[in-house]
Amino acid sequence: MKFYSRYVVLPPKSKYYMFRRLINLYHYIFSSGNFVKAVYGTVLIFVASGCKSQPLKEQEGYVNVEGGKIWYKIAGKGNGVPLLLIHGGPGARSCDGIPYYSLLGDERPVIFYDQLGSGLSDIPEDTSLWKLERFVNEIDSLRKHLGLKQLHILGHSWGGAVLVEYLLTKKPAGIRSAIFAGPLLSTPLWIKDAKILLARLPRNIQDTINKYEKAENYQSPSYLVATDSFYARFLSVKQWPMDSAAECEKGLSGNLQVYHYMWGPTEFTATGTLLNFDRTARLKELTQPVLFIGGRFDEATPETMKLFHQKVSQSKLVIIENAGHNTAIDQPVMFTNALRKYMHSVEK
Q1: How far is the C-alpha of 346 from the C-alpha of 337, rounded, in Å?
Q2: 325 is catalytic
Q3: Catalytic residue among 121, 157, 236, 315, which?
Q4: Rg of the Cα trace of the chain?
Q5: Average of per-residue pLDDT across 191-208
């Protein structure tokens, strides 16, 4: 122990701590003659200090991406590993989920953002921008801008498609867990589930939907009333139509152009560029810890969620009772408690 008496000891939080560690290393060079080991240690200190992420502060801002700028918001004062949220759609907005996901902010920063084309982000009209790869690249842009070296990522609905594509194509480092909430991972399975759920509606509502679907008349008042019956049972069982969150009272809206171009006219009719999207067979390639979570009455049915879960070795499945596709809105406490518990488990 006498060897260390020549070295300066300061508490880790001292502003001179890193400087003193370097001085101690140079003492070691001349006292031990072990030049290679000392230089190697110096390099490690510089690397460690440069890689350390700065704490995220509550803020709003914009990030440049292909086609324009996207808006983001960081909520929460906790110091835990950040959680990045990818909202549904395509063409939807993040503000509806802010009051509910922000419940997690006591432990960690929660990062919301509006995808290009919706909410507070730029809204270009160039349809060439509405491609999955470009939405995936938004995540890299956000991570670089905010210095997100370690994070959890949650993709809800269409956001699940963006997340799975990000994981499979980018092979990103630093993902503590991937959370798929009522995810779109396969359009064929989504439409299959939709048909099962449609069959649970009263016969007269089914007949109305089938009549106008066959005629491709998606704007008929009778058709819209019938689709509302579907949404009230499987999109949000708490209340339909949903009341907008206070955070959405800035004139924010979704973008039906993007929705129709990429998906289609309704939740259960796909005609857009995502028609053949299916990553079911590649789920086995996911190496990160994964949580599949959804509502008992979700459009992504519990049976399909179980199928996804069985294909990922490091995954868990949670079904929230008395909830539809908008699980965070229907059961915010149960939903966020399940997220909290899961993130704790992978951080141990």
Answers
A1: 15
A2: yes
A3: 157
A4: 24
A5: 96
Catalytic annotation, pick one of 118, 156, 325, 330: 325
How are beta strands 151-156 and 110-113 bridged, if at all?
unpaired
State the residue for tokens 């070295």.
Answer: 7
Q: Which residues 6+ apart lie within 8 Å of 294 measured at CB? A: 181, 182, 300, 302, 305, 318, 319, 320, 323, 325, 327
Assess whether 298 carries a catalytic annotation: yes
Looking up tokens 């439409």, which residue turns up?
191
Provide the whole-model pTM. 0.84
Name residue 6's amino acid: R
- Tokens representing residue 288 in the block: 């990160």
Rounded CA-CA distance 123/53 in Å is 32
Q: How far apart are CA 11 and CA 27, in angstroms?
A: 19
Q: DSSP characters for 39-107?
A: HHHHHHHHHHHHHPPPPP-SEEEEEEETTEEEEEEEE----S--EEEE--TTT--SGGGHHHHGGGGGT
pLDDT score, position 225: 94
CB 160 within 8 A of CB 281: no
Q: Is the pLDDT of residue 310 over 90?
A: yes
Left (φ > 0), alpha (ψ -120 to 50) or beta: where does 115 sit? beta
Is residue 236 annotated as part of the catalytic site, yes or no?
no
User: Helices H, strands E: what count in the chain?
Assistant: 12, 8
